Amino acid sequence: MNRKIKLCLLFLSPLLFFGGCSTHTRYVETSGPRTLNTTEINIQDFSYAAEDMIKSLLASGALDKAPKQPAVLAISRIINNTTQQIDTDMLTKKIRIALNQSGKALTTTTMGIGGIAEDPLAQSMQQEKDFYADKKELQRMPDFSLSGKILEMRDRLDDVRQVAYIFQLSLTNNEGLAVWEEEKQLAKQEKKGVFGW
Question: Rounded to two decimals, what is the model's pTM?
Answer without folding.
Answer: 0.69
